[in-house]
Sequence to fold (875 residues):
Amino acid sequence: MQVKIESLTKKFGNVVGVEDINLDIKDGEFVAFLGPSGCGKTTTLLMLAGIYKPTEGYIRFDDRIVNQVPPRERNIGMVFQSYALYPHMTVFGNISYPLKLKNVPKKEQSERVSRVADVMGIGGLLDRRPGQLSGGQQQRVALGRALVKEPDVLLFDEPLSNLDARLRLTMRGEIKHLQKELGITSIYVTHDQVEAMTMADRIAVMSGGHLQAFDSPEEVYDRPKTLFVAGFVGNPPMNLVTVEVSHSDGKYIAQNSSLKVEVPAERGKQPAAHNGDVTMGIRPEDVSITADGELDGQIFVVEPLGREDLIDVRIGDNSILLLADPEANHKAGENVKVHMDMTQIQFFDPKTEKSLLWT
Amino acid sequence: MTAQNQSTQNLIDISILTTAIKNGLIVVVGMSVIVLVLLGVFKPILASVQVVESVTTSISQFLILIIPFIAYIMSGSSVRSIVKDRPLQAIVVSVITTFILFAVISTGHFILKLGTFAPTSSIQMTFVDEDEGIRVESVEAGGAADEAGVQVGDLIIALRRDPIDRSGLMAQVAQAQVDTPLRLRMMRDDEEIQVTVRTVLADASDVAGLLPSLVVAVAVTLIAIIWPAQITPYVILLTILAPLLLGYIWLVIATFSTRTEGILPLDGQGNIGGFTLENWNFLWGGDIVGLNVSIWQITLNSLVIALSMTVIVLLVSSMAGYALSRMDFRGRKLFLSFTLILHGFPAVTLLIPIFFVIANLGRIPIVGEFIGFNKSVGIALVMVAFELPLGVWLMKGFFDGIPWDIERSAMIDGASRWRVYWEILLPQIRPGLLALGIFAFLGGWNAFLIPKTYSTGAGTVNLPVFLSQLIDETAPVNWNQVAAVGLFQLIPVFVIFIFAQEYLLNIYAGGTKGSS
Fold:
C-alpha cells in the first residue's frame, strides 16, 4: 500500500499543528517520523489513521483519497504508546476484537489469534487480563492486535517509550525483523533518533509542524539538509561553530577569532560564496586528538563512555566535543593538538538554517 | 541518704509524686483562671450587647463541674509511664495525689460555695419514713418549714394529690426551683391540714457529703491509670452515636409492641412485654388504622418510581456524559456550567411551574395516560429531571477518566462509535454506573416532596407519602404502626447499603475513576 501525503495541514482553531507536509511512502517501506515533542508527528500519524480530519491537503492510500474515510474502513493497525489494551477483556479478547468486529467466524478467529500470538511469543498468555501482564507482554499483545487483521498500513506511536532500555533494544530488532518479513507499509513515530536510525528505511524529520528532511538514515546523518536535522540526529550531537569562509590563493579557509582550518574545495565553494558568517558543523567522531593536529586546544573535561571517551576541548573560546580512545588516557587540563576530518565538514546558512552544501 | 529515706524512696518516687501533683494543680488552677476570665471579662462584655446572656454562664458552669474530674484523670495519667514496672508505686502515688487534689478542690468549693457546698433548695426540716407517711422530726427555727407552720410530729401524707414518701419528697425538693410552693397535706392530732411550704436556698455544709465524692475521685484516678489509650476514640464515637442507635432500636421495638415507654415495650396493662405482631398486619392485607388500603399497591408505586428513575437516569446520564466528555459542540462549556447550577437548584421553587407542565402533558392523547398528573410515570419523570444534573456531571467525570487511546484503538480496530460506547467504554465505568444506579434507585424509593405534590388518592401514593398520610390524617396517631410501615420502607434501603456500600463510597469520593 503506497501512502501519499500532499500539502497536509492541520489547524486546531488558530494553532497550527502541521503545515504543508509532503511525503511519498512506498509500498512495504518503514518510515520513521522523527522529531522533538510537539513537532506534529503524532498529529500527522492520527490524520493517517483517520482520527483527525485534515484542514487542508490530501492523504492517498494507493491513489485513493481517504481524507473522509473513517478509521474502521482504512484497514490499518495501530500500536499506541500506552498500548491501549481493553482492560475488561482477556488477551484473547483483545487480539480477536478486530476480527470479531468483522464478523469473522469463531473458529477462524481462534486460528488467526493463536498464529499471531505465537509469532509474538505470547501464546501462553491468552487467558490473562492486561492488568496481569508486564509492559513488554502488553506491548506484544498490542502489536498482535494490530497485525491480526492483516492491515495494509501499520502505524506506531512511540510504542517503545514505556519500556525499559534493555527491552527497548530487543523489541527494536524484533519489530524491524517482523516488518521486513511481513512487508507491510509501516509508519513509526518516535523522538528517539537511535530508534529512527536503526529501524527505518527512510526518516522524516519534523520540527515545529514542518517537514525538515525525508531521506534514508545515511543521507540524514551524512548530508543533513537543515541545521535542525544536523543537530537532532547523532549522539553526541554535532559541533556547531560560527566561522567565515574566505577564498584566497586557491584555498578555502574557514576561520573565526580562535580557529582556522582549511576546507576542501568541494565543500568550501558554497560557503565562500555566501556573504557573511556561516555555521560550520563537524561531528565528534570526525574530530580527533593527534600529534600532528592543525588546531591547538586544552582539554576541559573528559567523560568516559566505556567504549570511548567524550572529551570537551576548548580551542580558544570554541567548545569542541570529540571522541577519543580510552587507552590514550587523556586528562583535563592537557594541552592537545586537534585534527578535524574536513571531508565530513558541514556548512549552514545561519539565517535560513538550511545547508549550504545539500538541497 | 539514710536507710529510712531509702525505704521511703522504694515505695514512693518523690519526683513522680511531685510531677503528678504539679500536673493536677496546673489543671485546677488553669481551668479556674479560664472560668474567672469567662465570668469576669467575657460575660460583662457580652451582657452589654445581648438581651439574654447565658453562653458564658453555661460554659463556666460546665467547666466548674468537670475541673475535679479532669484533675483526677491528670493525676492518674501522670503515673501511666511507670504503671507497668512498678504498679504498686503507681497506685500509691496517684492515690496520694488525688487525696491532695481533692483537699484543694474541696477547700475551694467550701470557700466559693460550689459543688457539695453549693446552696441547694431545701425546706429546712428533717423527716423520717413511717408506715402511713412521713413524720417530721425537727424543724429549723426561722426556716422555711417553720414559717409555713410545720410542727414537729406532723405526719405528711401527700404532696398535692399524690401520696408521697421520704425519697419522693426529697426528690421534689431537689428538683424545685427556689421559692416554689409545695402544698403538703398533713395529719396533726388526727386532723387533716394543708400547709404550703416555700423552698429556699440554704447552705449545705454537709461534710459527710464529701465521702462519696472522695470515693468517686479515687475510682476515676484508678480508671485513668489502667485505661487503654487506643479505645478512647471508640468510646467517644459510641457516646456520640448512642442517641442515634437508641433511635433505631426504638424503631424496631416499637413495631413489635402495642405501646412503648421510652424504649421499653408495654402491653395493655402497662407491664413490660407485650410483644405483638398486629402492627405488621398490613403485610398480609390487614387494615391500617381502619383504612382499607393495600400496602402492596403502594409499594408497587414506589417501585415503579424508583425503577424508572434508575433506568432513565442511567441511560440519559451516561449518554449525555459521553457526549460532554468526548464531543466538541457549540455551547458545551455553557451546558456544563448550567448543569452544575441546576444541581444546586432547590426543587421546591419549581413545584408549581412543573405542575402546569405535567398537567398539560396529561392531555397528550395516548402517552398522556402514563405521564400526566397523578400518574406514577409522570412523577418519575419529574424526579428524573431533578436527578439528571448530578448524574450527567458524574458520568462526564467518569468518562473523563478513560484515556482517549482506548477509544481510538477501538475505532481503528473497526468499531462504530456506538459499539465503542457500548462494548468498550461502558464496561470501564461499570462501578460508576452501579453507584449512580443505586443512588437513583434510593432517590426514587425515598422520594417524598414531589410524589406528595403530584399525586392524590391511594392509586398513586408511594410509601413515604403514605407514611405522612398516616401521621397527618389519623387521630390519634398510632406511632407503632407508623414505625412498622417506616421500617417496611427501610428494608430495601438497608439491604442495598449492606451490599453496595463500597460502590456508593465511590461516588461520594468525587466521581473520579470508578475502578479500584
Notes: The longest strand of chain B covers residues 181-188.
